[in-house]
Amino acid sequence: MTARTRPRAEARSARPPLAKPELLDIYRLMVLSRRLDDKEIQLKRQNKIFFQISGAGHEAVLVAAGKLLKPGYDWFYPYYRDRGLCLAIGMTPTEMLLSAVAAADDPNSGGRQMPSHWGHKALNIVSQSSPTGTQFLQAVGCAEAWLRYSQLDGLPQKPIHGDEVAYCSAGDGTTSEGEFWEALNTASNLKLPVLFLIEDNGYAISVPVEVQTPGGSVSALVANFPDLYVEEVDGCDPVACYEVLARATAHCRARRGPALVHAHVTRPYSHSLSDDEVVYRPSSEREDEARRDCVVTFPEWLIAEGVATAAEIDTIKRQVDEEIQVATEVALAAPQPKPETALLYVYSPDVDPTSEQFDTEDDPRFTGAPTTMVDLLNGCMKDEMARDPRILVFGEDVADVSREQYLKDVKGKGGVFKVTWGLQRQFGGQRVYNSPLAEANIVGRAIGLAIRGLKPVVEIQFFDYIWPAYHQLRNELAVLRWRSNNAFSCPVVVRVTYGGYLKGGSIYHSQTGAVIFTAVPGLRVVCPATALDANGLLRTAIRCDDPVLFLEHKHLYRQTYNKAPNPGPNFMIPFGKAKVVKQGTDLTVVTYGAVVQRAIVAAKQLEEQSGVSAEVIDLRSLSPVDWTTIAASVRRTNKVLVAYEDSLSWGYGAELAARLGDECFAWLDAPVKRVASTDTFVAYAPDLEDFILPQVEDLAQAMRELNAF
Fold it and tell me: Is the pLDDT of residue 273 over 90?
């Protein structure tokens, strides 16, 4: 059989020929993969499983890859066609069929994900999700962990080998995703050991390759990336694939940079059982492709070359069928997950950031003069980075200077608001560094780094620009622990500036929208209103074992009214612990962020002018929320105002109001009232901005109306 390759000449290396046992085992694994697909299709038609998507046609290149890579040593970010790879590195047919039937003992996800969403802790197969392309940046972060660990001092043991590879695969259609190009950018720029395998079967569901890819060849498009080894191969020829992948893997293990293997495979079945390719592929095309089917052509080649006899091929097929029959019987008899287990592993079962372990608020060790939120956030990160050498800080402009030779000559950037100023100077460019201007790149890499035991504390420069990262935040960061049934976690802290009340901020520098993230299970969301709270909550965020979105309100960064002395390196505030910032008896105001101070001012004015006593609660933590403190206050005052900076409709306050009506109705003497921003965007003109955002008088008027009800 022949390979169509386009190697880089300097990377060619001789490879010893595969011996007969290896060739026969490659064939066995290819047949095993195909027969498992066929068995699942049968089970789906019998209504014994609920979904099926096959790896048919991809077996040759995947088994070859599995033969070269090391389970539990290398790291794997496969996609749903990668059954052959997973079998080759040690996943069993029983484990795959346990996934198909959604058994409790399914090692991929415990019945939480569709079949062919691979994950196996012992083999280093990182839990795969359905979105196409999100795995690229995570694999880059996983490979980057080798680089960061190798540069870190102060760790007695480092979980690296020095030549491990991060494998990442996808179909050709997925290379249309922007995250593919972001991943190549960083992998090449940092010379990371990522093996990208693009399995090109000519279609992305019904969309052919020429519609997806300019010129029809992704390997041609990426040929000029520096330090990227590129080869193209006939993915139906396992021997050619083995030779090409051996060269590509050697390139990565030698730390010469990433590699991309573009394998031309077939797709003998429809995209999935939910698709019918007959409606968009002519029979002539499907017949031509069938003649290349690797599970047909490879045994013919083995016999023609005298490697195996027809009897030996038949024996392998019979043994595979027997193995699958046993695995099927085991899987069908396996118990399903108990319904109540669905609530497990949304958050860490071992580290509870709402617990007393994280509550040292009553014992601050103050030093120095009162200072701003910016300074106390900076101080917290310095303390934590000194305590834990695994902490990495990166994002756009967070370093003092990317070209470190200039450190002695410049003051340093340290973020557009100076929150990270001086961290690089103190801890080095290996731990504090700038990222490309690409938000998904920041969060996706952070997920991969956290998988390897590092602690990324990353910055998204403005909340207004967090949306390219939302895919990684919602579908990956927050979901990984739950979807892997607690096999994997990624406790990343994502710091992001937030909110308005800055003259000139306008539409794209004043956005709020906490509710979009508080609605995501698995993600902790906090929003401090004072310098002291920011220091204690950030320390809790860094030390907890869950992903945290840490909202830092720009307007509050340098206010004088919220200053505090440094509370010391062990000062923590637990999540889900609100603070009563003004006592009152007549009504309750529930608020957070920049509205807290405005509510306090409005409440004091009201008390001075009318004698009405309003209690003001600063939530501090938005998810989880301190319902105990809220409910206790409302049961005393019997009236409640919810005040927030998000738009009035569909916002965070709407959820609070709904729950107050549901759980505190018996104590309410008036309807729950809300004050929030108008249902518009924030404008540039100061008078428009003041009209749009909730002001002191808006809050005071709402309190007067509520008291008078």
Answer: no
Q: 36 by DSSP, 3-state: which? A: helix
SS3 200: strand
Is 509 part of the annotated catalytic residue set? yes
Quote the radius of gyration of the chain (alpha carbons, Å): 29
For residue 358, give every residue at least 6 positions away whose Cβ sits within 8 Å of its Cβ, in sequence order, or none: 352, 540, 543, 544, 572, 573, 574, 575
Euclidean distance between CA atoms 19 and 278, whole angstroms = 40
CA dist 404 → 144, 360, 396, 515 (Å): 20, 38, 16, 40
pLDDT of residue 551: 98
8 A C-beta contact, residue 446 and residue 549: no
Lookup: tokens for 234:
């006939």
Contacts of 486 (CB under 8 A, 6+ apart): 344, 345, 349
Question: Is the pLDDT reported for residue 9 higher than 80?
Answer: no
According to DSSP, residue 627 is labeled H
Yes or no: say if 634 and 626 are a contact pair by the CB < 8 Å rule. Answer: no
Bridging pattern class, strands 673-677 and 587-591: unpaired
**What single string gives the DSSP state of each residue in 524-584?**
EEE---SHHHHHHHHHHHHHSSS-EEEEEEGGGTT-STT-EEE--TT----TT--EEEE--
Cβ-in-10-Å burial (0-12, 13-18, 19+) of 298 comes to buried
According to DSSP, residue 191 is labeled T
Residue 563 has pLDDT above 70, yes or no: yes
Q: What is the pLDDT of residues 100-145, one digit of tens each?
A: 999 999 999 999 999 999 999 999 999 999 999 999 999 999 999 9
Q: Which amino acid appears at position 312 of this protein?
A: E
**If you ran DSSP here, which 8-state letter would residue 593 be given?**
T
* Residue 125 DSSP label: B
Q: Which two tokens stand for residue 4?
A: 């169509």
Residues 6+ apart with CB under 8 A from 314: none
DSSP 298-328: HHHHHHHTTSS-HHHHHHHHHHHHHHHHHHH
Displacement of CA 78 from its chain's centroid (Å) = 15
Amino acid at 603: A
CB atoms within 10 A of CB 604: 15
Q: How far is CA 546 from CA 93, 498, 522, 568, 593, in A?
A: 33, 21, 7, 23, 22
C-alpha to C-alpha distance for 312 and 314, rounded to whole angstroms: 5
478 contacts 523 by C-beta, under 8 angstroms: yes
Please identify which residue in the block is written with the tokens 């093996």: 195
Catalytic residue from among 262, 509, 553, 555: 509
Give every CB contact of residue 117 below 8 A, 6+ residues apart in sequence: 80, 99, 108, 109, 127, 128, 129, 130, 483
416, 422, 425, 426: CA torsion to nearest 10: -140
Cα(544)–Cα(536) distance, rounded to whole angstroms? 12
